[in-house]
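LOG
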Amino acid sequence: MIAGRKRKMLASTVASALAAPEQTVHKHNNRTDLTLNVSPAELKKKCEPAQSTETERSHYFSRTDLQHRLGEDFFNQPCISLAKAFLGKVLVRRCADGPELRGRIVETEAYLGGEDKASHSAGGKRTERNTAMFMKPGTIYVYPIYGIYLCMNVSSEGEGAAVLLRSLEPLQGQPVMRQLRAARRKEGARQLKDKELCNGPSKLCQALNIPRCFDRRDLASDGEVWLERDPDTNPVEPHDIVSAPRIGIESHGEWAKKPWRFYLRGHPCVSVVNKEAERQSVSGNVMNNLGPSDVQSDTGQHNVRRT
């Protein structure tokens, strides 16, 4: 058992390490990781959503935060365009006691609303679970899979359309992410590499402690999770993006073949690499998989039955 005073000192050390950029430099080879002597339960509590109003959370944001934070205009674009625009942007999760976890988005999937048979909103159907998909662009949609894991989506322009965040490149707070992931793994399991912390939709929710209660929050204005531009990297170019079929929807026939999963070519944190899609995107043949309705969908003009 760790004494109360010593535990507090360790928690303070975690916060300091997360706040200082020099503690989060990537070292993929021969890296010595920091081991945190903080229990998973305590760590999760530190990252729990604050029970406060938007006014009370406003002190979280500095001028720098506001300068790089993406607002409503960014999210208000067609689903496929938004799914591509997410690539290279930074998802930020601010924990209750101040430290921030950061990850660069490297993989997404677009779900186009009513016409998309693989979407939760197929046919324009609204339910208690998918309400966030019909809310304004930038609304967070968090839903459970297999009864125990969570996935994070963001609504776009278009009725019932949303983008699934599939994978992140960890940028800041890797020791905390590692502890949060370890809490859901078998005791004695090997330590995860940085590239394994967020390389899947449920993994990124675990690593950033994205809870179910974030559902229906506004990513453009929330005080605990938001999106930023990365001023230190070049914008993602079209040739950097691979378009591939979405994952885990094989039962939806032709809709499983739509090339609406997008990822950064050659990035080690992508969940699943599709060599054939990479060859097609290099040659420009990926557009051969898009029909007239698909192209129309990217303009935001959805043929959806409204309820």
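LOG (cont.) second protein
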Amino acid sequence: MQKQSHSHFKPEKSWCLVIALVGLIGGALFISMFFKTSENSILCNNQAPNMGKFLDNGKRSNPQQLQLDAILHYATSRVIPQQTIDEIRVSFDVLKNKTPCNFLVFGLGHDSLMWASFNSGGNTLFLEEDPKWVETILKDAPFLHADTVKYRTMLSEADELVEHYHKEPDCSAKKSFLRGNHRCKLALDMLSDEVYNKEWDVIMIDAPRGYFAEAPGRMAAIYSAAVMARNRKGNGVTHVYLHDVDRKVEKIYAELFLCRKNLVKGVGRIWHFEIPPASNAANNFC
């Protein structure tokens, strides 16, 4: 994304990444066409057979057209993803086998077309803090599905919020709820019903802004992603990706809520976690 430092594009990066990205999207298109006759074998658990025909906001979704649009966009654009090709491939390798699935992305930007194309036919929802930025992106890509999030935290409060988590009963792993959880400052308590009602197979955390004191920081996003994963009722794990783990707050909160024991891969500045439902885990986050 261009407005924010971490999930926006950086035009000064090498064109080699653009070429590689086009190859990834082209590969996803090939895979989706190759397996079209055996769609049920790659459906995420509990997916409806008509998944992808319509987005939840009523807009028609054409999976193949979405991927073709993405190839055209990145083949002709001077902007490239903020994540490196090796970092992108970590989530791409999972998404190509999970699609169509429920994919929740913290952050909206010019890279959003890429993420949506990787999950063509599935449900991809972007959560963005800035309403004006949502309007800017959706003007050029109206088929993307995005919600605005109002965060209650600031990066400068990161240490204080760790203490708050330990003292506030409604933050505990035993309770582990988000909707209406006003007492736990780390809980994203005012999201859309869609976020709460769906079970997210894949969650990408590459926002909100977390590089200056007054920014929201990613503390609440990390905590809330952990709660969503623990509350999963279906079979299997939730794949959670956290970018910018070279920063202190991201690393501390990942260790606290996403858990080192759930870390399956780390490449560059991205960590990949596989988080089991709480029924298969202890009463603590880690």
